[in-house]
Amino acid sequence: MVYSYDFRSDTITKPTPEMLNAILVSEVGDDVYQEDPTVNKLESFIAQLTGKESALFMVSSTMSNQVGLRSHLISPPHSVICDDRAHIHRYEAGGLALISQATTYSIKPSNGVYLTAKDIESALIPEGDVHSSPTKVIELENTLGGAILPLSEMEKIKDLSDINGLKIHLDGARLWNVSVATKTPILEYCKYVDSVNLCLSKGLGSPIGAVLAGSREYINKARHYRKLLGGGWRQAGLLAAAAFVAIDTVWPKMEFDHRRAKRLRDGLAEMGISTALPVDTNIVMAKVGDVKLNVSLLGTECAKLGLLIRSVQSDVVRFVIHHQLDDQAIELLLQAFRTTIELQNSKVNTKATVY
Ligand SMILES: Cc1ncc(COP(=O)(O)O)c(C=O)c1O
């Protein structure tokens, strides 16, 4: 089966010809010796973009988050507070327990969308109780499921963190999207955190990589942990060159992804399907359970139209919009939904006549 469009994630994009060309002509050196000029340039650029002293090019966002948290977590027993749906809590292979010897205390946001300072305050574990592991880091994710954690709430969380002497790590894998959607510089969001991970290979479309940013001392520590975990890469400037092309050519067009996500949301709403989270950016969490949709049937109808989706039966299915999906992709997906609903309805009607 040849698929023309892939809605499963924004990680699946292929490098553009411009990226491949940049890789071919990139200037490289040994990054373990910090001698790769393109990596050094990327790290300086991200440090500036985030308003931090220093930055470190990483293999992936998982590595960036795990090394980033390990570099804050000095002396166990210690713990990290995060959203119950956070990537570091659910999808990083239990890395915090293994690498940082840390417990996660995960919270369900009381507003159902994003964590608030109040949610976090009530879950903080203080020093001195020998039964528990004290909170040392608050971990935030922006976006989470495509929904934005507002700047005003981040400011309140920062105040809470300061009062309690904690650090904040931001998994900003999709902070690029937040910045575009809110027309707010990335720097503004980074003011309220000690460290931030920015992914290069999600909506930005670069083939590999993420960048961790923070204070000089913190990044020096992180560089050590990155090496320990086998992330001391050599001529990584190849990838840094592709990342610059992604930042220059894909980021400025990200608004189109957000518009297409909203078009999908609106089209689904016309069929009686709502979303589990606000569609602030490029992710649509479609509540297919609203119409008792048979997701594997939807997967089959999508495949006929050359669309690849996550067709695992569930009440909520995630669709992720990226720069290699166009208007036609969205209309085809809506068409596949309509056909699936019609087929389901006709089966119900057939059964009704039989009985
Ligand atoms: C919010 C978030 N953080 C981190 C990651 C991990 O990214 P990577 O696949 O680069 O390790 C993902 C992956 O989808 C993610 O969605």
TrEMBL record:
GO MF annotation: an example: L-allo-threonine aldolase activity
Cofactor: pyridoxal 5'-phosphate
Keyword Lyase: yes
Domain Aromatic amino acid beta-eliminating lyase/threonine aldolase: 6-288
Keyword Lyase in annotation: yes
Keywords: Lyase, Pyridoxal phosphate
SUPFAM superfamilies reported for this sequence: PLP-dependent transferases
Highest rank taxon of the organism: Eukaryota
N6-(pyridoxal phosphate)lysine carried by residues: K202
A GO CC term assigned to this protein in UniProt: cytosol
A single BP term in Gene Ontology: L-threonine catabolic process
Family indicated by similarity: Belongs to the threonine aldolase family.
Name this protein carries in UniProt: Putative low-specificity L-threonine aldolase
